[in-house]
Amino acid sequence: MSRSPGISQRVAGVAESATVAITTKAKALRAAGAPVIGYGAGEPDFATPDHIVRAAVTAAQDPKNHKYTPAVGLPELRDAVAAKTLRDSGYTVAANQVVVTNGGKQAVYLTCQALLDPGDEVLLPAPYWVTYPEAIKLSDAVPVPIDTDDTTGYKVTVEQLEAAKTERTKMLVFCSPSNPTGAVYTKDEVTEIGRWLVDNDIWVMTDEIYEHLVYGSAEFASLPVAVPELAERCVVVNGVAKTYAMTGWRVGWLIGPEAVAKGVGKLVGHMTTNVANVSQRAALAAVEGSLDSVHAMREAFDRRRVTMHGMLNDIPGVSCIEPEGAFYAFPNMRGLLNRDLAGKTAATTLELAGLILDEVQVAFVPGEAFGLPGYARFSFALADDDLEEGLARIQTLVS
């Protein structure tokens, strides 16, 4: 492996976040005056609700928030997260099972550090969020991708899990509603997977950060609620980022068996100590408050979802199944490969993303970043006019 002198193989082997990279490039071009429309960001385009911001302002003025607090999180916030988890998903947990983290990403990383040993294998349905395989590899464990595609609704089956399982299998990563595909597993599908995990003594890290963003007839189902006996081998990852438009506040959490939470507490005690208290106080206001603003955002996302789904399917060479959750569509872009586009051709969706950004100033994340070349992730967390304009540009380019 080629690396700079002094850089560890562990760090040299980590892939840059493609979603962060494409968003950064789009912002740089926009700052330079280019009329770029970006579908790359995995964050709501709404401002954090006012009552949450006011709680943060008040917290900043209180000297008690200027000092260190418990590494595992403010006791009030841990209590509130436990209460919110029961309210929203029906999962009964104690506050001492909750660890507050610097965003959902740190919760994913800490879960892998707490559970995985070198050589352990982790079943990873693909397409997957870009951070999952890197967090697994940073634990010296081995991600085992399991391919899905649009013909299966981007859902993994128990039969696929069984075929991928070995004696080294330690954990499954599960995400519903899904980033990047918008797929939502039914309760029956969740139950079947949960029972398979119990039968095979396999841990699961289930990412529930999009729990409130489901549309149409789709319903969110939590693994440890569908299969209660799974709770002793389950870590739930969640946070305020997506639900409350708080991506920049950096507050997430994990919920697991008490021994896991205690172990993670030791890790954060050495890594970061407490999450910023002002952010924690804001998160407390969020999880204890009304969901009215959440419902309003979901209505907007739902409207944009319908628009994006229709417009993507109107682009010659593109097909897209209807996303049921989160705020992403994941179209099949293979029909645009190896064909003339403004005098150029792209052999991969990675090349296609560069071509479209250069030609019509539209940015999206290619499927290579998520383990499924030939596809792409388009976020519909952007203004309606921009959403329509960007897709219209692509349609004009390829027509």
- Can you count the beta strands? 12
The domain tally reads 2
CATH superfamily membership of the largest domain, which one? Answer: Type I PLP-dependent aspartate aminotransferase-like (Major domain)
- End-to-end separation in angstroms reads 43 Å
Residue share in helices? 40-55%
Strand order in the sheet with the most strands: 2-8-7-6-5-3-4
Radius of gyration: 21 Å
Principal-axis shape: globular
- CATH class descriptor name of the largest domain: Alpha Beta
Overall pLDDT confidence: 95
Low-confidence spans: none
Q: Structural class, from helix and strand content? A: alpha/beta
Strand content: 5-15%
- Number of helices in the DSSP assignment: 14
CATH topology of the largest domain: Aspartate Aminotransferase, domain 2
Kindly describe this structure:
The protein has 2 domains: 9-47 and 293-398, Aspartate Aminotransferase, domain 1 (Alpha-Beta Complex), CATH 3.90.1150.10; 51-288, Type I PLP-dependent aspartate aminotransferase-like (Major domain) (Aspartate Aminotransferase, domain 2). 41% of the residues lie in helices and 13% in strands. The chain has 14 helices and 12 strands. Strand 5 (169-175), helix 8 and strand 6 (203-207) form a beta-alpha-beta unit. The protein is globular, with a radius of gyration of 21 Å.
Summarize the structure.
With 399 residues, this protein is α/β, with parallel strands linked by helices.
